[in-house]
Design a protein that fits this description.
The chain is of the alpha/beta class and 304 residues long. 44% of the residues lie in helices and 13% in strands. Helix 3 (78-91) packs across helix 5.
Length: 304
């Protein structure tokens, strides 16, 4: 199991930088930042824009990977998203990972004056965006199609990305069509489970989605084991999982999701932003002791 961190951009800038540096010091793989135009549950609350924040984090960190979770196609045309990704990839020295999502939050639509999409339109726009990003971030010509909602003539983007062939592209997906797309195009797949499912429900549906992802990969001639599987955990609005009750409870979660097929757990930093009232001493022990120990075991196993 590997571990990433998730920042909610609702804190002061010095605090965000310090939390990213803490994750870097502890050896986390990637620091992600939530990508909405405003806090989805408190529109008037303080909130930084994700890509501007990523540019700042590129300059404020040295080794940890950075990226949005998830790059929001409601807010930006994928051509602009590709430009932003290439810029941050160069600014960070090739440390960008790009998660892409179809969007869901009504405030995102309302604040950029885009009507809510029905399911078919959302899936069509999402597929077109992922295909476009997969191509242009490689330096290839974007495919043009009469049916595309994004582009109707071919184009290329320069400069090419710092990474070769492109930054890792991770598809956020919960439904069958989006999971199929992750199996076809994604270097990774990510999920948060789903709201109100409870701990057992999230674990069960994640197991089903992992199986769907693996089947999709095989259909597209890919090795299912080559696709990273990320799980964002710890939000009490999603699940009643008692992962912060003790260090043993946290390690139990790690064991269960490893068995399910998840390769990377994404932890909020601080966890209390989505799980108020948890024991700070447990959080400190998990971040400072348990996670580094488990990642050292992973590193040792990989090197052997």
């Amino acid at each position: 199991m590997r571990f990433d961190g998730m920042l909610i951009p609702a804190f002061g800038w010095p605090d965000l930088v310090e939390r990213a540096r803490q994750l870097e010091r502890l050896g986390f793989g990637t620091v992600w930042i939530d990508d909405h135009i405003a806090n989805p549950v408190a529109v008037g609350a303080p909130w930084f824009e994700a890509w501007a924040a990523l540019a700042g984090l590129a300059a404020s960190t040295e080794t940890i990977r950075i990226g949005p979770m998830a790059g929001n196609v409601v807010l930006r045309h994928p051509t602009l998203l590709a430009r932003q990704a290439i810029t941050v990839d160069h600014a960070s020295g090739g440390r960008l990972s790009l998660t892409i999502g179809s969007g869901y939050a009504e405030p995102d639509h309302a604040l950029v004056q885009t009507p809510m999409w029905d399911d078919d339109e959302r899936q069509g726009r999402f597929r077109d965006a992922v295909v476009l990003l997969d191509c242009v971030l490689r330096g290839d010509q974007a495919p043009a199609s009469d049916d595309s909602v994004w582009v109707d003539e071919p184009f290329q983007i320069r400069p090419r990305s710092k990474q070769s062939p492109r930054p890792p592209l991770i598809v956020a997906a919960h439904g069958p069509k989006a999971i199929e797309l992750a199996g076809e195009r994604g270097d990774g797949w990510c999920s948060y489970g789903g709201y109100g499912l409870g701990a057992a429900g999230v674990e069960a549906i994640t197991r089903q989605r992992v199986a769907m992802l693996e089947d999709a990969a095989v259909r597209h001639g890919r090795d299912p084991g080559s696709i990273e599987r990320l799980m964002l955990v710890g939000n009490t609005a999603v699940s009643d999982e008692p992962m912060w009750a003790s260090t043993d409870a946290f390690e139990d979660l790690v064991g269960r999701y490893t068995e399910v097929g998840i390769t990377t757990l994404v932890l909020y930093n601080p966890p209390s932003v989505v799980a108020p009232g948890i024991d700070d001493s447990v959080v400190e022990a998990v971040f400072e002791e348990v996670v580094p120990r488990l990642m050292a075991l992973h590193t040792a196993g990989t090197s052997s």
